[in-house]
TrEMBL record:
InterPro entries: Tad_N (IPR028087). It comes from Gimesia fumaroli. Residues 17-61 form the Putative Flp pilus-assembly TadG-like N-terminal domain. Keywords: Membrane, Transmembrane, Transmembrane helix. The chain crosses the membrane at residues 20-43. This is Putative Flp pilus-assembly TadG-like N-terminal domain-containing protein.
């Protein structure tokens, strides 16, 4: 006998099927909602982590470049502070400095390891494709300076066009504060050492007259042996000395010529004579002697000094001419001033022969050593989404990195895309 289902039984079955579909579709929609929500959270976290690392890298490299690319401790702390100021999903991102001050010879940028949050290094090329090298020294504290002496005779008269100094390349905030020319101690058995003369009538002198464009002034179209500098002498004293009252004219590297950007002083007196010094110092007003980074327009000047006894017996077979400067050799120390960081830096080189040992010419080139200062900020941040937090799990991580470099020409940092990375 066939059983007839009641309406209540049919209703219960339909309700059971509806609940089953609700469970199935509800689980599907809940899963879909969680996936969308987690992806959205992950995307937001990725953007915020990238922005935070961009800010950290820019802050760190700006601090480093402006300070002359010296110690990285303070720049790293600046990067940490900027990262913390840019929260990730409402929480501050706390990075580590990755700082290691030991072994500066083999670790010039003071990186603790290659996996830390901040890697300091340098871009090894000025144009794409860029390579970031954490083992390469960076330099913004010195520029490229070319110096020459062209002196064909053995006399000790002051030739105002003999010596030229050209500031070929340097950052926008970099100027030359002073240049020291030093004659080494020669012929120790001879009590009379070579010297620069500071007696009246033999003072160092600048070439300020119109000479016409020629090789000595790099065919300067103005026809003068200087450019970019105020070369008016101190009319109160009639000479170029920083302190005209008494030798050795030492004024702690400050230019005290009230009418121009240049003045001279002498230091390190040699025995057996007065007004005789081993070191000639040329001082400049801060911010006056700068570079346009173009040899055709950069600042330069020419001058002369009375040079004595840079020959036999102290220096055989030199003849007190331009060649003797590389035979000695005469050394040069340039002090730079960074107007942004208010710091100084020095670099030293020596005169060498220009390739012709008999033309009375010696040259010295002081070049910026190192690549373009750059900082890579990198981090992996765990992301806790709404659904994952409900279930007590956290399996989402966001990884990002950012590289910024310091443009010494403008004094500003900028982000850069790096194709190759080297971290020894």
């Amino acid at each position: 006998m066939k059983r007839i289902h009641s309406n209540s039984e049919l209703h219960q079955k339909r309700r059971g099927i509806a609940i089953l579909w609700l469970i199935i579709w509800g689980s599907f929609f809940l899963t879909f909602f969680c996936v969308v929500l987690e992806i959205s959270t992950l995307w937001q976290a990725q953007v915020e982590v990238q922005n935070s690392l961009d800010a950290a890298a820019l802050a760190a490299v700006k601090e480093w470049g402006a300070s002359g690319s010296g110690s990285t401790e303070v720049p790293r702390e600046a990067g940490v502070a900027y990262a913390a100021a840019n929260p990730i999903l409402g929480s501050s991102m706390m990075l580590m400095t990755n700082y290691d001050p030991s072994d500066p010879m083999n670790n010039p940028n003071q990186n603790l390891n290659c996996t830390g949050n901040f890697i300091f290094g340098a871009l090894t090329t000025p144009t794409p494709p860029f390579t970031f090298d954490a083992g390469e020294s960076a330099a913004t504290s010195v520029g490229t300076v070319f110096m020459e002496i062209v002196k064909n005779n053995s006399g000790n008269a002051v030739g105002v066009r003999d010596i030229g100094v050209f500031f070929d390349d340097g950052g926008a905030n970099l100027s030359i504060r002073s240049i020291e020319f030093t004659i080494p101690i020669l012929g120790n058995s001879n009590p009379q050492q070579p010297y620069f003369n500071a007696t009246l009538g033999s003072e160092p002198a600048l070439s300020t007259a119109f000479e016409g464009p020629d090789a000595l002034n790099r065919n300067n179209p103005t026809g003068f042996d200087f450019r970019g500098l105020d070369v008016d002498p101190n009319l109160m004293t009639g000479n170029w000395y920083c302190d005209p009252t008494a030798p050795p004219f030492t004024l702690m590297g400050m230019n005290t010529n009230p009418d121009g950007d240049i003045c001279f002083e002498m230091d390190d007196q040699v025995p057996f004579g007065t007004n005789r010094y081993r070191t000639l110092i040329v001082n400049f007003t801060d911010g006056a002697f700068v570079s346009t980074m173009d040899p055709a327009t950069t600042d330069f000047f020419r001058f002369g000094v009375s040079m004595n006894q840079l020959n036999n017996p102290a220096l055989p077979p030199a003849n007190n001419d331009g060649e003797s400067w590389n035979l000695a050799p005469v050394s040069v120390t340039v002090t730079f001033f960074n107007s942004l960081s208010m710091t100084t830096s020095t670099a030293t080189t020596s005169f060498v022969d220009d390739g012709d040992p008999s033309n009375g010419r010696s040259i010295a080139t002081l070049s910026s050593i190192g690549g373009i200062p750059a900082v890579r900020a990198q981090a992996t941040v765990p992301v806790q989404g709404f659904c994952s937090s409900m279930f007590g799990i956290s399996f989402l991580d966001v990884t990002a990195k950012s590289t910024a470099y310091f443009d010494s020409a403008t004094g500003r940092p900028a982000l850069v895309h790096v194709e190759n990375e080297i971290c020894p």
